[in-house]
Amino acid sequence: MCTQPKRSGLGDKDVGTAASVLHAFYRELCQDEDGNRYSVVVFRTHPGFNITDYELEDETPVRFIDDCLFEIESTGKELTRCP
Q1: How confident is the model at residue 23 (pLDDT cuts 50, 70, 90)?
Q2: Helices (H) and strands (E) in the chain, counts
Q3: Strand locations in 10-61, DSSP E?
Q4: Which of 11-15's residues contact partners 24+ apart within 8 Å by CB, and which partners?
Q5: Which pairs from 41-49 meet CB under 8 Å and 24+ separation?
Q6: Burial 22-60 (b: 16+ CB within 10 A, else e)
Q7: What is the pLDDT of residues 39-57, one digit of tens each?
């Protein structure tokens, strides 16, 4: 009798990748002082914990300052939420 291992249903490429760990909540439309628009992704790397992270769509880290303001960490450029 030939037995086969159990499969999780996930492809090999999905297991252990960052995308399989992240849980995006929503996106915030923001703009800088020059009017350039950005989309800030709000997510949690560990859904069971109350720690929220922020980044641009290109995975550039963003720091939450307050309810209306973010900062791109690498450049210091401030982004405000779009009305």
Answers
A1: low
A2: 1, 6
A3: 23-31, 37-44, 53-56
A4: none
A5: 45/21, 46/21, 47/23
A6: eeeeeebebeeeeeeebebbbbbeeeeeeeeebbbeeee
A7: 999 988 777 778 889 999 9
